[in-house]
Amino acid sequence: MAGEEGAEAEWAGRLGAAGEPPEAGAGTDAVAAGAGADTGGGGAGDSGSGGGVGGAGGGGAAGVRGRAGGRAAAEEELRAAYGSGELTGAGGAGAAVGWQERLARVALTRVADPGDKVMGRAVRDLGPRAALRAALGGRRLPGAGVGRTESYGIRAARADPVADLAAAHRAGGRFLCPGDGDWPGQLDDLDVQRPYGLWVRGRPSLRLWALRSVAVVGARACTDYGRHMAVRLGAGLAGAGWAVVSGAAYGVDGAVHRAALEADGATIGVVASGIDVAYPRGNTDLIAGIAERGLLVGELPPGEHPTRSRFVQRNRVIAALTRGTVVVEARYRSGSLITARRAAELGRITMGVPGPCTSAMSEGVHELLRGGAVMVTDAAEVVELVGEIGADLAPVRRGPVLPRDLLRPGAARVLEALPGRGDAAEQDIADTLGISAADTLSGLHELRALGFVVRECGRWRLVRTARDNPGSGAG
Question: Using 50, 70 and 90 to split pLDDT, how confident is the model at 30?
């Protein structure tokens, strides 16, 4: 797109009432009729605040043109990939979210900052396409001032969602929307601060892993005691079949992620940047490991870097995604306390690990405990608490929590490969199926989270009648 006028024309045509892409060259009349013209200046290649298309998106589009024989061909490839449902948890049954709505939501991740209540209310009340049309046309949304309205318009004109989807795809990522099979419904509790969508790297189902997940957060500059407790909790929760969620930062976050990975468990990193950006740089290998063996999740499009406000808003996703939040070491006014308080507001269990009374690193946790959070000292105590609010999902002893015919195809194949009696090593299962060890482990973690299998002494076996009871459900 050469500039704002071309961007507006394309977007107005794409987001018209008909819901299908216009014929080549169409769209200008739609702009004149309703999208508006003046959005505040700036070119499509500008990489300023909220844009970034010239860096991650614009460069991505050029690569797509070179490899796919043109932008239209690249878009059709992406549309087919998302339309099949394979990228969104529909298991090949077709996507529940239309292509135009997906494009609008992708664009909104560049138009408005995470947690923006004004845009969030517009998306809730009007829908994502109408909200984006309003931004393109410079129309003031309820609660938006002049400056915010101009910012929306500038960012909307620069947005290139096809390029962003292509960049994410090259990084091994995908974009999930509310309504997708893999969308975690508990995020709906955020109401007008619900993400417009989530960028995800990793093979497992985000929705299924989030059903049995606990957040463990804490100080970046943690003490040896804090790191020890984080490792103890991370390994224990992962070993009990719970997904461990944190922010992939230094300190407690990094320790708990590493412990979960070393225990061959499930872990989810929620980042305040694009999923293709390793931040902090010192955790580059850890972040790559999370994306390879777990899930890396974020609200920001490819190429975007974190800011202070983005870290704060990231915390609300951690709080909403999980069944409970544990804080391991935090000073007064720590960001970890924001996560815990948001979790309490959302009705999640809030927990804290006590520390030395003389340690400044435990002052925030002790304040949290005085305010009603529950003291915990190990993973068993955490599971006891979160199991109460998720008893229909938690104990493996009840067997599967989901009918077998609703499993994703990859997990279903892994289930079929497990022996009816005895156990098997993950490499043996991988060899039987002819798939990678990473894909096998992903399927096994999904099956364990749903109560189909257990891991003992490094080997996997079926839980009771997991194979023979396809109708078993949570009820």
Answer: very low
d(CA 426, CA 443): 10
Task: Centre a 10 Å sphere on the Cβ of residue 20 and count the other Cβ atoms it contains.
Answer: 10
Amino acid identity for residue 203 in this structure = R
Q: CB neighbours of 188 closer than 8 A, spacing ≥ 6?
A: 178, 194
DSSP secondary structure of 422-450 = S-B-HHHHHHHHT--HHHHHHHHHHHHHT
- Residue 53 in contact with residue 45, Cβ under 8 Å? yes
Quick check: bond before 301 cis, omega within 30? no
Query: What is the DSSP pairing of strand 267-274 with strand 324-328?
Result: unpaired
Cβ–Cβ < 8 Å for 241, 463? no
Dmax (CA) for the chain in angstroms is 70
Q: pLDDT tens across 256-283, in order?
A: 999 999 999 999 999 999 999 999 999 9
Residues 234 and 244 sit within 8 Å (Cβ to Cβ): yes
Q: Which of 87, 303, 97 is nearest to 175 (CA)?
A: 87
Q: Is 405 helix (H, G, I), strand (E, B) or coil?
A: helix
Q: Which residues pair with 456 in a beta bridge?
A: 459
| Stretch among 213-222, 320-329, 445-454 having the lowest mean pLDDT | 445-454
CATH 3.40.50.880 fits 398-462, yes or no: no
CATH code of the domain made up of 202-389 = 3.40.50.450
Nearest to 208, CA basis, from 470, 468, 446: 446
What's the CA gap between 197 and 184, in Å, rounded? 11
CATH code 1.10.10.10 region(s) in the chain: 398-462
Residue appearing with tokens 């939501």: 105
For 324-378, where are the alpha helices, taking DSSP H only?
A: 335-345, 363-370
